[in-house]
Amino acid sequence: MTERVLVTGASGFVAGHVIAELRAHGYQVRGTTRRPVDGLDDTVTADLSRDEGWAAAVEGCDYVMHVASPFPNETPKSEDDLVRPAVDGTLRVLRAAADAGVKRVVLTSSLSAVTSGHHDQAVRTEADWSIVERIRAYPKSKTLAERAAWDFSRKSGLALVSLNPGMVLGPLLSSTVGTSVQVVRRLMTRDVPASPKMGFAPVDVRDVATAHRLALETPAAAGNRYILAGEHMWMRDIAAVLAEEFNPLGYRVPTGTLPTLLVRLMARFDASIRPALDFVGRRELVSAEKAHRELGWTTRPLRDTILDTARSLIDLGLAPNPSKNSVATNS
Q: Domain of life here (predicted)?
């Protein structure tokens, strides 16, 4: 009998790839959305801010992958606008899963629940947690939501696995550009004149999707956290990869470095820049060895990930070639 998996937030970037991975391996997939989405055969309307819909969503499902979570492009006016929906929404999904007797829940958390708020440059592992007293709304929401999930798991006996991906890049499945992919888009379109000294630990969305399936299928994964991330890269390193490939084709990807003092000054006047300050001057040093060892997880080269991200932006018309636009304008 084919097993059924509920994927929350089915219209999202990561969720879309998770759904494709599950389907490719023979699972039936049901998705939750806040509104109907084209291309999904089995969907249930459910909102993380409301109780209605979640019992129907998990009914008949063997597993749940809770991928949905708010990820704003700028800092919210109040922390609670982000923290409460993340925590309360996670608990709504877990309660419904426990009541329905699902075999396992795989929670998409974040590296920001591991590395944020630490002032030293130690290599972080799954034993580390972000320090909520020192961090902004988004990492706080991910940290508190994951902690709430583990508390619920311990009290209820619900089998839980959490996955903590770094900066998720890779090919888009729609024209909606999330916060992580915006870094690549802004370099390709030269929305930024140079790269702030911002550090990331990127990971390919396709590899993240594979990890979700492995977390579901690996018996010993229950009760564990897994970091999903590659080696540290500065934003300038990402720009260099893009420039090498695309500048000969007419793009003008900037390869210089933006002074940190200027970035901090800009953030005072532009709220969309403020969340990025957490990454300025900081190396994102983590180990994904546990996922490789216990899940048998493998990753593709980060260069391929960066280039595939850019190519999908081009294909979707989100990063048009400036030289071709110039030719069209002058013709």
A: Bacteria
